[in-house]
Amino acid sequence: MLIKIEFESDIPIYEQLKRQIIMGIAKGEFKPGEELPSVRQLSGDIGINLHTVNKTYNILKEEGYLTINRRKGAMVKDELPDAKEEYIHILKDELSYLIADAKNRGINMEDFSKICLDIYSEFEKEV
Question: In this prediction, what percent of the chain has a pLDDT beyond 70?
Answer without folding.
Answer: 98
